[in-house]
Specification:
The complex is a heterodimer. By secondary structure, chain A is mostly helical. Helices cover 73% and strands 0% of the residues of chain A. Classes of the chains: A mainly alpha, B mainly alpha.
Chain lengths: 119, 592
Amino acid sequence: MTFACSSRPLLVIAAVYGFSVSLATALADLGALGVAMVPVVVFLPGLLWMAGAAGVRVGLGALEVASMSVALSLGIGVVGGVALNAAGVDLDRSAWAVFYLFIVTLLAAFALLPGRDAN
Amino acid sequence: MTRVAASKPRRLPDPLSLAAAVAAVGVMIVELGYSIGRDAGTGGTVCFWLGQGLIWVPLMLVAASGHATRSARLAAVMLFAVAQSVVKWLYSPLDFRFPDELAHQTTAEAILRTRHLYEANTVLPVSPKFPGLEIVTSALVSTAHLSVFTAGTIVVSVCHVAFAALLFTIFCAVLRNQRVAAIAAMIFALNPHHAFFNALFIYEVPALLFAGATLVLSMRRESPARSVALPGLLCVSALTATHHVTALVLVGSTLLCAVVCLVVRDREMALRLGAVTLAASATLSIWMAVVAPDTLHYLWSSSLNSSSRGATHWKGPATSPEPATLERAVSYLAVVVACALNGLGMLVLFRAHARNRSRGNGLLIAFAIAGLMLFVVLALRVVTGKAELTGRALTYVFLFSAVPMAVAWNLGLRECRVRLAFKMGLYAALAAMLAGFMMLGWPAFWERLPGRFHVDAFESGVDAHGLAAARWTAVGLPHGARIACDTSGCNLLAAYGGHVPAANMSSVFYAPTITPAARGLLAYKHIRYVYVDERMTQQVPLTGSYFAPDSHAGQHVRPLAPALLAKFDKAKEANRVYDDGTIRIYDVAPRR
């Protein structure tokens, strides 16, 4: 098994990203509409770059790694949403948590998805 | 001393880049066709088909090329999915219009409004019980302050494209040949509903992604079983909470593959797929027992009541227009080509297995056996006339039959490499499948180009009048009001107004006056408002029905008599609260 890239910087970025999303959500709730999109726009090129880097290092291919990561991150978003609702949590107030969950999963999946050597 | 200029070899453009550029031009030409359609001009249909050809041909050439890298093939497959998503978005770039999209928008709006799941949806009652699509969409809406349309379009487009990549990976695992896998992925994308229907805002789209991810995790032998168990369970759980039919198909298909792998002594794969079958069965059973107990009843009644909407080439509603003879011929040709390729591919795979060439690859044999479903579904289509049901089933059938089809097509290409005419014939056969299955799929031919309004006819039954009225009701009427309306009006009022459309109200519209019986029905169903679209007196519904359900379904040979709708103006108990000259809304609550 090979690893796409080191998980440490990715998790740091995930944390920064999560805090940014949380902060931006709070700003948006205060009326600064559109601010919530800032971290998405800022970090999207980073995500794409990481997908490319991951694909170079594993045989699965950058696009396949990205697609699998998307599937896993949306999956955790769905399961997280169902779990939060079952716990009686307000889904609107916890939307950032669902969003954060799938962003972290996306990044973790980039880092940890096993692949085969490129040939 | 003479200086000899070194001649640099001319670098040809990268085939993938060239194909991407041509495909982008194709998308632009399709949009030109759509613009012509909106302006009611001529030549829009020609632009549509020319654009579709420019999208498909270069990407298919890259996918099937003998020299392309694995990444280039995958990129070609994904670019085709990107083009499909963009074309679908261009069809209606500002609003959802397809009835199922509006039903899921209703569920998403309910989650955003109540901040919890499972709020009842009278338009599609099963939708809130499988809220995966709406959970992700509403999270994006809440976090990024996007509209449901924008967030939903992003979610389904990402799912559609990511699924294409995972499908290629699945076919690589099954075929162990990246070139044939790319051909199979491109052939899958030709199935009647994939280009448009499977790019809509409907729960099947993320479900296909979750099912694809589950199959990738279970079928890739390179990934140790222990390391994929947790992600696999996650995908199965998400699939269960997203779409019933896809979850059932996953259970059935993994069971079939596991049994076949066991028979051909591929024990490792049999165990992996058996575990997926068990996990999917368990989660689906629990979900259907706890959250969605009426799912099986819904599926059974849906299959019985499934309409012949969609393709009308074989047997449609009596009021449906007939497609052009050429269109009919191409769609028949597509079916013949698909059956021929599927049958030939199955024969090749079974013979190869009999000669022990592929012993041990249980997946390949399982996919070949599952390819039989293509013949079964097409036979059902002819016998029962249920275009909607069988059309949707073909998405799942092509998941398997694309493999034998690709094997047969590739064999033809390999055997006849030197004969250009035959090679072009093979590409032409697939082009016929592309065109023919698009004609059989969605949208129906009378609304292939946007712009022309057809009363109560799916996408083309929604226009600016309906949207404006529905949006007005969101602020002008009390939330959750019960309304009697025609099919398109009901879909819009639920999605944009947050109201509750009442079923079985067609008798109120067909009565010559507001009779005591009609008055009693309005009171019994607690109807507060009646929504009237004047165009019901100008057009016959191409779908055969004005209402859902319609007591006169399939019997309309002329539009409704104007007096049937004018009666609301004359009735003392009806107070007109909205009128834009085309759509009127009456308050029919009893006066005290």
